[in-house]
Amino acid sequence: MYLNSPVTQFESFSLTTEPNPEEVEIDKESSYELPPLTRPSLPPSNNGDGGIYLAQRGNSLAHQKSEELQKTLLGHRHERHLVILQDFPDPDALSCAWAYQLIAQQYDIKCEIIYAGTLSHQENIALVKLTTLPAQRWTMQTLKNKDLSSYQGFVLIDNQGTTSGLLSAVQQAGLPLVVLVDHHSLQGELKAEFVDVRPYVRATATIFTQYLQAGLLGLDSSISQHVKCATALMHGLRSDTNRLMQAQEEDFMAAAYLSRFYDAQLLNAILQANRSKRVMDVIERSLKNRIVQNNFSIAGVGYLRYDDRDAIPQAADFLVTEENVHTAVVYGIVHDEDDELEVVIGSLRTTKLTLDPDEFIKEAFGQDSTGRFFGGGRTGAGGFEIPMGFLSGGNENSAYAKMKWEVYDAQIKQKLLKLVNPRDNPIQS
Ligand SMILES: [Mn+2]
After folding, report:
1. Burial status of residue 407 (CB atoms within 10 A of its CB: 0-12, 13-18, 19 or more)
2. What is the mean pLDDT of each run of 10 residues along the chain (429 residues)?
3. CA of 169 to the centre of ligand 1 (A)
4. From ligand 1's centre to the CA of 314, what distance in Å?
């Protein structure tokens, strides 16, 4: 039925230009000018091809969500919001937060983009520097000096709070979650006024590009900030889709749209950022220490500095390229010298379509005493973080530090190998 009447179906979902009585009322009240949302252009013809219908369905969801987001933003005009990213933000998160900030600006909503950890990957540092992307690091010390009551809400982008050390502080301060946009699998119950979680979309940048395309922000190539933001989104989209190799139709459509605005030279400059020697050393350790079983490559890399944390996913990216390997897991103990904090951090990369990283990591490591999972994932990639609590620090004695690493290394390997080689499970045998 849909196939026979795709246009009608499509129309009924698309954003209408006819005034919605509710919106008109808001308009009159405040004389606020609504940025017009564009009507999606219809494909020239339809010969009953299911593919076109599918593309339209994705498109109409994007329009429906854009309209909902616009209404939410209208309800929060003149407010101040915190946009919280994962502790170690990646290009997808950073670029989308920026796009969100530019969208929200039109409603006089001031957004501060914050993260608790650090920018570790050389490309992320280059991205932020070269585009002057407005993200700030908020440490626990920063939090203490901030008056959270001056904000009216917070926003989560490309995460659901499980990978941010800032979530508990804003929740304790009573700030409501206004907007949640992500493409990771649903991590649990989070009440937000606006929710757009689409685990089948490969990058949050695809979702945000669809918002832009729907008219939430009219990109203009003569505005340098717009060009830089489009470049950042292109980088986010590419990096979450393994340089578009895992991209699907929606992601390609988003990339095509961004291609009208992005600066190819700037993107090239971001991608040219070199790895530090310390990152190279971590990759070397991962190569040396890896064990390969049943097409899984597993490597513990020992201790690494907080600033080099991103060497772990980079090592996993590398290990998964080996012949006969479909999944790589790399982990190490990340040490934060300032806070004497230690945490086990790991990354998973897979090219196996039937392996769900989110399920795999949850199954391997389970939950902590409060029911929170130690990690999760999205298509092709996942990560985990295991706090070391009482065992943190005290590494002046190198023999002790070595012993500690060996215990964690053995424990993690054991948990992973139970899934990799179910027969090795001592409980079952
Ligand atoms: Mn992402």
Report:
1. exposed
2. 34 36 38 50 42 59 96 98 95 98 98 93 93 94 93 97 91 96 89 95 97 97 97 97 93 98 96 90 97 97 92 96 97 84 94 94 93 89 92 87 96 96 60
3. 23
4. 16
Q: Catalogue the long-range contacts made by 403-408 (C-beta closer than 8 Å, 24 or more residues apart).
A: 404/333, 405/300, 405/302, 405/303, 405/333, 408/300, 408/333, 408/344
The rounded Å distance from CA 184 to ligand 1 centre is: 7
96 exposed, middle or buried (CB, 10 Å; 0-12, 13-18, 19+)? buried
d(CA 307, CA 259): 33
Burial of 254 (0-12, 13-18, 19+ CB in 10 A): buried
CA distance 177 to 171: 9
d(CA 37, CA 17): 8
Count CB neighbours of 134 within 10 A.
16
Helix or strand run (H / E) with residue 101: helix 91-105
Cα separation of 126 and 131, whole Å? Answer: 8
Q: Measured in angstroms, how far is the CA atom of residue 56 from the centroid of ligand 1?
A: 23
